[in-house]
TrEMBL record:
Keywords: Signal. The keyword Secreted does not apply. Residues 24-70 form the Kazal-like domain. One of its GO terms (biological process) is proteolysis. Pfam families: Trypsin. One of its GO terms (molecular function) is serine-type endopeptidase activity. Residues 196-413 form the Peptidase S1 domain. It comes from Raphidocelis subcapitata. Belongs to the peptidase S1 family. Residues 1-28 form the signal peptide. This is Serine protease.
């Protein structure tokens, strides 16, 4: 088919050029320093800013003093006090925030909102008393990013992905292919796949695990009192797809500090915990939807960007947001993660029949899961992640569906 109009390459170049012009124009009006004193204002864009100075740096006019009253923005409150969390996880005195910090992710479409305190532990999974009944994902979703220093950035998903989308093609926004480790040979397909319902049928991932299980890893949240765990999957060498409630404390209404990731972690025969690709710390976390504002399972997805890439020997999983009639028919999917009812560092896997809820925010499933497996990927026979496990209930569990907005945020972050 021949399409009329501006060639794709020119359209992409025009978008990137426009973003660059907007960034330079905004930075020209950004103060060198803004006070860390909490004096919140509501911008005309409906977002809260730490102060009028911070809003000015974002190029936004102040609508009124105080937090915004609408429910459309992120559900955060600035609270830095005299001390702000330091980049190393400790605390350091910070009287002002500099322009470099406020404009750090502007080219990716993110506006700086302010700085908050970070929570010491993850939140609980979403409320399991009611099933999701909403259908299609709405178009107002946003990306919310935070750093180890507690700096918070915000962007509509479409804006956050504009530069990434301009540099790719249409199919890239629906699929990210998996990357197997060098020299990997896929096993022969097996017959007799079965649906697991009832008793616990989880099995070990292997000692050591093989791809794609090497791309599944354990997320650790180390605090002074207790260690917490979640699960996640490498979808880029430095990006981990997981559940938003693993990095956002619903109780404290704050982001979580002290995140670390170990791909392919397992227990050796003598019980030793093995992290074959080391442990990577986090650079920043992006919530790809509006979980802080709603707390709903369909919004429960996040991307942890690591401070350094994991070895290519781990491989990465693909991500597939395409969904059609064939996807809605029952098909075998696999999941793996680190359950808290097992020994620390022990990876377990499971498979079950799943019918994707195309156009919905979440899909029910009957794979056996337990606390700690939040953030575990659900992938198909092509090693493409289709969802992220977010909650368990007595008769059915649920994972958040991957959609094109998720992929845009992965590409943009």
């Amino acid at each position: 088919m021949v399409r009329r109009g501006v060639p794709r390459g020119l359209r992409a170049g025009a978008v990137v050029a426009l973003l660059s012009v907007l960034v330079l124009a905004a930075e020209a009006g950004c103060p060198q320093l803004c006070s860390m004193k909490v004096a919140p204002v509501c911008g005309e864009d409906g977002l809260p800013y730490l102060s009028a100075c911070v809003a000015k740096c974002a190029g936004v006019r102040v609508k009124h003093n105080g937090y915004c009253s609408s429910n459309g923005g992120p559900g955060i409150r600035f609270d830095v006090g005299d001390l702000a969390p330091g980049r190393g996880g400790g605390k350091e005195r910070a009287a002002a925030i500099d322009r470099e910090t406020m404009t750090a992710y502007r080219e990716a479409g993110f506006a700086y909102l302010g700085r908050i305190r970070l929570a010491d532990e993850p939140g609980a999974p979403p409320n399991a008393t009611a099933r999701l009944e909403r259908g299609a994902v709405d178009g107002g979703r946003h990306a919310l990013r935070y750093t180890p220093a507690g700096d918070v950035y915000y962007a509509p998903l479409a804006k956050a992905a504009a530069a990434a989308a301009a540099g790719g093609n249409g199919t890239e926004l629906l699929r990210i292919p998996p990357v197997a480790p060098p020299g990997f040979s896929p096993p022969e397909p097996r017959r007799g796949l079965r649906m697991i319902i009832g008793s616990d049928e989880r099995g070990p991932c292997g000692q050591p695990p093989t791809y794609p299980l090497t791309a599944v890893g354990q997320l650790d949240f180390v605090t002074q009192n207790q260690d917490f765990i979640c699960s996640g999957a490498l979808v880029r060498p430095n990006k981990v797809l997981t559940a938003a409630h693993c990095v956002w404390s619903v109780n404290d209404r704050a982001f979580v500090r002290g995140v670390a990731f170990a791909a392919g972690r397992h227990r050796a025969g003598d019980g030793t915990i093995v992290s074959p690709f080391g442990v990577q710390r986090w650079k920043h976390v992006t919530l790809v939807s509006d979980f802080p504002a709603t707390g709903e399972p369909g919004s429960d997805m996040a991307i942890v960007t690591l401070d350094e890439p994991v070895s290519a020997e781990a491989g990465t999983m693909g991500v597939d947001a395409a969904c059609g009639p064939d996807d809605m028919r029952p098909k075998v999917m696999q999941t793996a993660g680190y359950a808290s009812d097992k020994y620390n560092g022990e990876c377990v896997k499971e498979q079950c029949l799943v019918s994707l809820g195309c156009g919905a925010e979440a899909t029910p499933h009957t794979c056996d899961t337990y606390m700690g497996q939040s953030g575990s990927p659900f992938w198909d026979g092509r090693n493409m992640v289709r969802g992220v496990h977010v909650r368990g209930m007595p008769t059915v569990n649920e994972f958040s569906n991957v959609n094109s907005k998720t992929l845009r945020s992965i590409l943009a972050s």
